[in-house]
Structure formats: structure tokens, C-alpha cells
Design brief:
The complex is a heterodimer of chains A (423) and B (242).
Chain A (H helix, E strand, L loop, with lengths): L4 H19 L6 H11 L3 H6 L3 E6 L4 H12 L5 E2 L8 H9 L6 E5 L5 H8 L3 E4 L13 H14 L4 E5 L3 H7 L5 E5 L19 E2 L4 E2 L12 E6 L2 E6 L4 E3 L8 H16 L4 H8 L11 E4 L2 E7 L3 H10 L7 E4 L25 E5 L3 H11 L2 E4 L12 H4 L4 E5 L1 H17 L1
Parallel strand pairs in A: 1-3, 1-4, 2-3, 4-5, 5-6, 6-9, 13-17, 14-15, 14-17, 15-16
Antiparallel strand pairs in A: 7-8, 9-10, 10-11, 12-13
Chain B lengths: L4 E7 L10 H13 L3 E7 L11 E4 L4 H14 L1 H7 L3 E5 L1 H5 L3 E3 L5 E3 L6 E18 L11 E13 L7 E5 L7 E2 L1 E3 L2 E4 L5 H4 L1 H12 L9 H16 L3
Parallel strand pairs in B: 1-2, 1-3, 3-4, 4-12
Antiparallel strand pairs in B: 5-6, 7-8, 7-9, 9-10, 11-12
Helix pairs in contact in B: 1-6
The chains are: A alpha/beta (423), B alpha/beta (242).
Bound molecules: zinc ion.
Zinc ion binds next to loops of chain A.
Chain lengths: 423, 242
């Protein structure tokens, strides 16, 4: 490794800044440290990447989980660096690359907007493109604009292999002209942001397994991999007919099976043993606190995170069936989206037949939504308090699912960690 | 189908209504149910002819390109104008509000032709309006509209009312039309920048629309969840330093 002196100095300065930030109690310091590094050595990402980036993973939803699944699989080759905390903008990427052994293989999660920049700097072997939908609503993120930027990025980086979800028409539009694309049928539950053709604006025609555009003739590409999902368990099937049972995945739900199938397609491109990859992916239990079971106050919860309507729609299917009660925490801080109107885009009707405990800063918005969805609910400011008026069937559960928006999730995680250490 | 069924057309929900506006249709169904009225909702996709026999037509918000496509399609169809002429009710939110007017700005800011069923023109605000919106029903607003109106706005449009439209409300907090007024009404056509969605947070508006359809003013029925949300939002605006 011949890192430039400038990069080495920047790493030292960045680590000091990160440590200062940690001591001051401002989080993990990755973002601060990364910013300092990039300021001192603007080409640090390229210098640190140095041909060892196996894959970049981007998507609106599931990129942290997919990155973790893939990183676990890649570890069969030796040491891997990957962000443990989902830091996925340039500052997070540079900090991740500066961590661990200098020749370790890198598997990096990258924010959708930063992907072109990080791709140019790191020259990855494979890029995994999962899905594109609206994120925090009041940022007015134009999904189609991101897709056009990805398209341009792939034209400018013809050597990279793309693994892309063929069931997302917007991702397909972004990836279709790349010289080498491995299409994966990963499924798409949320179609509201891809109702019209990203190229010609015609309303797309959909069936259970296909989509096509009558305007310009675009259609779902032929896939090399498919996720087969039956009775709550997935199987990844290759075009050659090889089947990989994903039953052992500890990350729940159809969308994590989809994430694993995409990761497996990347593993194949990297020449990894596929059975071994599945085995290693099945060892992933929780990702940055997602799906972790923790004690908060007087109850034990399974933490579920959803950041946008697409994520919520997927998450509802992960929860146990009615009549099992669940907790739903809704905040509207900047990172959640200030406007919780998206609650009306999520099919909360699916929660009928149980009591939902509504909490978070915007619990009253959720209560009105549940009223209209005809879902029984109680509104409780602090359901974790021993004195909280929880329904008896909720109190009786060993573990209760708690789905939360971004900042509500982090409040719960921090509270659980604080309470665990103070015992 | 019996006469007493209220037919509601949800116009292009795949193009318009991606910001929770589908909730307005849910709220109409819900409020109608409270008043003992039966509803039937028809989703209208772009390219499909607009049903000519609905009592109430609902349009939501959407992105710039979707807005132009929706306006062009509705103008070509012609059904909205006919519906308004025979007295059908219309509720249009945000981008939907702009596009039922005479003209509105496209993605580049150039004027684009609207459906023309509301005497308004929209151009650009100097700065995008994003945040909580609180208004007081206009003195000329329909009977039954007495409570403050609460919602969230997210738009870049400055909307100017012509002589055939009157404001829905006056702004207490937020931007609205950009001249202290908010929304517009003409006959049984109503437009507003209130998201939230509008009818879930302001059931009196839902009752006015349903009242137009059945030809009588509906009594107010309060619901605990809704009143608590309204009280919280009003308190939030108060604390935000108005
Ligand atoms: Zn097309």
C-alpha cells in the first residue's frame, strides 16, 4: 500500500476529530471525521479505495441490510471493511475505507445521491442497485432524476458490473444501458413511485410477475436470478436452475430475502462460493439495531425501522398476524420528514384485528389514520413506562414488535443502550 | 344503484395523490358513513374517460410533470367542465388545485394551460412554501365552515383569484395563495393548498362537500382522535411563534 502522505495525515486528523466528537457525546463521529479527512485530502476516497472495492450497494430501502448480508458473504475471502452504522455519504465512505486493514476488501453502502461520485472515485467491481422510491417527502426527491443520474454514471463507468432489480421499472431504466447487467427478480411491493414509464410517461401495465410500457415498449428484462417467495420463506433461483434456500435468514420478511438474492447475485460475480455465501448471510442477526430485541423501560421490544412509505408497506408484512398487538412510533423530525401525510399512503388497514399502540411525537396523526383504517388503537405517550395503560394482551407478550420512523427508532435504541449500561 | 349512493371519482390517483392525498377519499367515505350516507368510489386512471355521472370529483397533488400530463388529459376529456356545469362537487388539492385553474407554471416555470373550472391563475412564489398552514374560513365561506383549518403546505405556487372565485380562507400562519388568502371556491368547486390530508384534519370541509351533494347542511359530528390532533396542531402553530 502506498497511500499518499496527504491521505495519511488526513486520516490522523479525521480520527482526532471523530474522537473529539465521540467524547462530546455527538454520536459515533464518523461523519465529522470523514468531513475533516475530505477537507484535508479531497482525493482520499480514490487513494484509499485503490482497487479493493468489491461492491457498492445503493437503494432507497434495504441498503444497510443488503450491505451487511453481502459483507458477511465476502468475508470468506478474508478481512472486509464495511460501515457498521449505515454512514453512507462521502464522509462515511472515506471513514470506512480508512478503517481496518489497508488491503481489506471493501463492501460499501452508498446513499443514492452520492453513488455517482463514489463510483467515480472508488472504481468498484460490482454495483448493486436495489430499488428507488420517494424518501423523506418534503425534500421533494425526484425519483426519476436520481435514475437519470445513475444512468449517466453507468455510461461513464463501462467496466463495472451492475446487479439490478428487474422488478423496479425505475432501477431498470437506470441500469438498462450498462454494458454488463445481471438482472434479479427481487420483487417490488411499492409501485406508487413507478406507476408511469420513467422514459415516456405512459402508465405502466403490470401483472404479478411482469411489467411493461405500451408507449415505448420497455418491459421487465429477462432475469438471471429470481426470488421465489412462498409461505413466508424465500428461495433464490438462478437461471441455471440452482436453488438456494433462504429459510435460515434471521433478517425477517420478503424484502430481506430479496436483499439476500441480490447479494447472492453479486457474490456470484465476485466468484464466491454460493452455498458458503448463503450460510454466512444466515448468520446476520441484526443490522445497526434493526430487528434487535431490546429492553426499553418495562417491556421487551423487537425494533423495526421504516424510513418511507415503501419501507412501511414492506414492514407491515413482517409483523406477526392479528390479533398480536404492535407498537408504532411516528416522529416528524427532519430525518423522518416533517410532514407525516405519508401515513395515508401506507396500507395500515392490514393491521386490522389487533390493537395498535400509537406513540411518538405524531401519535395523534397515526391515531386519525388508524381510525379511518378501522384499526383498534390506544394512544400512549410513553408505552414503555411500568404505569403505561397497555392493553393486557400487549403486557402479556414476551416481545412486542415496535415499528418506528428514523428518529423514533434511534431514540428507542439509545434508551435501550442507556438503560442496559445503567443496570 | 340506488339514488342515495354518493359516487366519488378519485381522479388519477397514480399521477396525483402521491402525498397522502388518497386520505381525502378515505375521509369522505368515513364522514359519509358517520352521516349514514353510502358512497361508491371510482378510481380513474390516466387515459380512461372521466365518469360523467359522479357526484364528487377529487384531485390530489403531484410532481410537476405529472401535473401537466393530468391537466392535458383532463382538458382533452372535457368531463370536468360538464360535471361542474351540472353542479357536481370538486375538491382539488395543491397541484390539483393549480391545474383546475386557468393556468399554472410547468417544471420550467412557463405557463401551462389548466382545466379552467376555477377562476384562478398560478405563477411562482419567490420562495417555496413548506410547513404548517393554519387558516380561518373566509367570511363568505360556505355555511358549516366555522373551525380553523389546519394542514401542511408544500408548493411553489402564487395563486391569484379572478372575479369568479372567492377565497376559501384567510391565512393565520403559513403562506397559502401568497396574498394572505388561501384556497378558492366557485360554486361547488373548491381548491386548497392544505395537505394533511385536508379532510382528515378538517372534517367540516368534508361535511360541506357531502352537504353540497345531498343538498342540505350536515350536522357536525366530532371524533376524539380528530379533535385531539387538531388541538395539538393548533398548539404547535401557537408555539411556533405566530
Ligand atoms: Zn415508456
Amino acid at each position: 500500500m502506498s497511500r499518499k502522505l496527504r491521505t495519511r495525515m488526513a486520516i490522523t486528523a479525521g480520527r482526532m476529530a471523530a474522537a473529539t466528537s465521540r467524547i462530546a457525546g455527538r454520536g459515533e463521529g464518523m461523519v465529522v471525521g470523514g468531513r475533516v479527512m475530505l477537507k484535508l485530502a479531497p482525493d482520499a476516497i480514490a487513494d484509499l479505495a485503490n482497487g479493493r472495492v468489491a461492491a457498492l450497494v445503493s437503494a432507497t430501502n434495504g441498503k444497510t441490510s443488503t450491505t451487511r448480508l453481502l459483507a458477511n458473504a465476502v468475508e470468506q475471502l478474508g478481512p472486509v471493511v464495511t460501515a457498521a452504522t449505515g454512514a453512507n455519504m462521502t464522509s462515511g465512505v472515506v471513514t470506512t475505507l480508512a478503517s481496518g486493514p489497508p488491503d481489506a476488501t471493501a463492501v460499501l453502502e452508498v446513499d443514492e445521491a452520492y453513488l455517482p461520485m463514489v463510483t467515480a472515485a472508488t472504481k468498484p467491481r460490482v454495483i448493486l442497485l436495489g430499488n428507488l422510491s420517494r424518501d423523506q417527502l418534503d425534500r421533494m426527491n425526484e425519483v426519476a432524476m436520481t435514475a437519470r443520474k445513475w444512468r449517466k454514471m453507468l455510461a461513464e463507468n463501462p467496466d463495472v458490473t451492475v446487479v439490478a432489480n428487474a422488478d423496479d421499472p425505475v432501477v431498470t431504466f437506470a441500469a438498462e444501458q450498462a454494458p454488463r447487467v445481471i438482472w434479479v427478480g427481487g420483487g417490488q411491493v411499492w409501485t406508487a413511485d413507478s406507476s408511469v414509464c420513467p422514459e415516456c410517461g405512459t402508465l405502466l401495465t403490470r401483472s404479478d410477475t411482469q411489467w411493461n410500457c405500451t408507449g415505448c415498449g420497455r418491459k421487465r428484462p429477462e432475469t438471471s436470478w429470481e426470488l421465489r417467495w412462498q409461505d413466508g420463506s424465500g428461495t433464490a433461483v438462478s437461471r441455471l436452475g440452482q436453488e438456494f434456500d433462504l429459510f435460515g435468514l434471521q433478517l425477517p420478511g420478503r424484502f430481506n430475502a430479496s436483499n439476500a438474492t441480490l447479494a447472492l447475485a453479486v457474490a456470484e460475480q465476485l466468484g464466491l462460493g454460493l452455498d458458503e455465501s448463503v450460510k454466512r448471510m444466515c448468520q446476520v442477526q441484526a443490522v445497526s439495531g434493526r430487528y434487535a430485541i431490546v429492553n426499553v423501560g418495562a417491556i421487551r421490544i423487537r425494533l423495526l425501522l421504516a424510513k418511507n412509505p415503501a419501507g412501511w408497506t414492506e414492514l407491515i408484512d413482517v409483523m406477526p398476524p392479528a390479533p398480536t398487538p404492535v407498537i408504532v412510533s411516528i416522529n416528524s423530525n427532519a430525518a423522518d420528514g416533517r410532514d407525516p401525510s405519508w401515513l395515508w399512503d401506507v396500507p395500515f388497514e392490514k393491521l386490522r384485528g389487533r390493537t395498535v399502540i400509537a406513540t411518538g411525537d405524531r401519535r395523534r396523526d397515526l391515531a386519525v389514520r388508524l381510525l379511518h383504517a378501522e384499526v383498534d388503537h390506544v394512544v400512549i405517550a410513553d408505552p414503555y413506562s411500568p404505569a403505561a395503560p397497555l392493553p393486557p394482551e400487549a403486557r402479556a407478550l414476551d416481545v412486542i414488535d415496535n415499528a418506528a420512523t428514523y428518529t423514533a427508532f434511534h431514540e428507542l435504541r439509545t434508551r435501550a443502550q442507556r438503560e442496559a449500561t445503567s443496570e | 344503484m340506488s339514488e342515495s349512493v354518493i359516487r366519488i371519482a378519485s381522479i388519477y390517483p397514480t399521477l396525483l395523490g402521491t402525498y397522502g392525498d388518497g386520505g381525502n377519499v378515505l375521509a369522505l367515505k368515513h364522514r359519509a358513513g358517520l352521516h349514514g350516507l353510502v358512497t361508491d368510489v371510482v378510481d380513474v386512471s390516466p387515459g380512461e374517460p372521466l365518469p360523467r355521472d359522479c357526484d364528487l370529483y377529487v384531485l390530489g397533488g403531484g410532481e410537476d410533470t405529472a401535473q401537466v400530463a393530468a391537466a392535458d388529459s383532463l382538458r382533452a376529456d372535457g368531463g370536468m367542465t360538464q360535471a361542474v356545469d351540472r353542479g357536481a362537487a370538486v375538491l382539488a388539492i395543491c397541484a390539483g388545485y393549480q391545474l383546475i385553474g386557468r393556468e399554472f407554471p410547468d417544471a420550467t416555470g412557463a405557463p401551462s394551460a389548466g382545466v379552467g373550472i376555477l377562476d384562478i391563475r398560478t405563477d411562482r412564489l419567490p420562495k417555496r412554501a413548506v410547513g404548517e398552514l393554519l387558516t380561518r374560513p373566509d367570511p363568505q365561506a360556505p355555511a358549516g365552515l366555522t373551525d380553523l383549518l389546519t394542514g401542511y403546505e408544500n408548493h411553489a405556487g402564487a395563486t391569484h383569484l379572478g372575479p369568479d372565485a372567492r377565497p376559501l380562507a384567510q391565512v393565520e400562519f403559513g403562506v397559502g395563495n401568497g396574498d394572505v388568502s388561501e384556497g378558492a371556491i366557485s360554486g361547488h368547486v373548491m381548491g386548497t393548498y392544505l395537505h394533511g390530508p385536508c379532510l382528515a384534519r378538517n372534517p367540516q370541509i368534508a361535511d360541506v362537500l357531502l352537504g353540497w351533494v345531498v343538498g342540505e347542511q350536515l350536522p357536525h359530528i366530532a371524533e376524539r382522535e380528530v379533535e385531539e390532533l387538531r388541538a395539538e396542531r393548533l398548539e404547535f402553530v401557537r408555539r411556533s411563534g405566530r
